């Protein structure tokens, strides 16, 4: 098991967190407090779930939660676009990252779902 910070999904998630932090920074105060902070918070939780999935014997529940949070972040970004709090260019750049996280998570989940319950490494944790 490698470090979670070296996983591509973590690196992409971190890039997303960096991007949304900058987006939120430029939102008007009320929207920032209501929605912007939620976007940043949910994006940071994505990274925690990558860590949890990486260290867990049963990765699937964590990966399912990760996918849920990605969808929530996408919805909040769409709301921000629809309410003209972010530009279409900002939205599409962020969505490219969320889609990448989602694809990587789906592949990881498919792999984890096929693994033996003991982790396939001779350990029974």
Structure write-up:
The chain is mainly α. The protein has one domain (4-112): de novo design (two linked rop proteins). 76% of the residues lie in helices and 0% in strands. It has helices at 8-25, 29-55, 60-82, 88-114. The longest helix has 27 residues, at 29-55.
Question: Rg to the nearest angstrom?
Answer: 16 Å
Architecture, CATH level 2?
Up-down Bundle
Overall 3D shape: elongated
In CATH, what is the class? Answer: Mainly Alpha
Supply the number of helical segments: 4
DSSP strand (E) fraction?
Answer: under 5%
Q: Give a count of the beta strands, DSSP E runs of length 2 or more.
A: 0
Q: Determine the CATH topology.
A: de novo design (two linked rop proteins)
Helix content: over 70%
- SSE sequence, one letter per element: HHHH
Summarize the topology:
Elements lengths: L7 H18 L3 H27 L4 H23 L5 H27 L11
Helix pairs in contact: 1-2, 1-4, 2-3, 3-4
Key features of this structure:
125 residues, mainly alpha, de novo design (two linked rop proteins), 4 helices, elongated
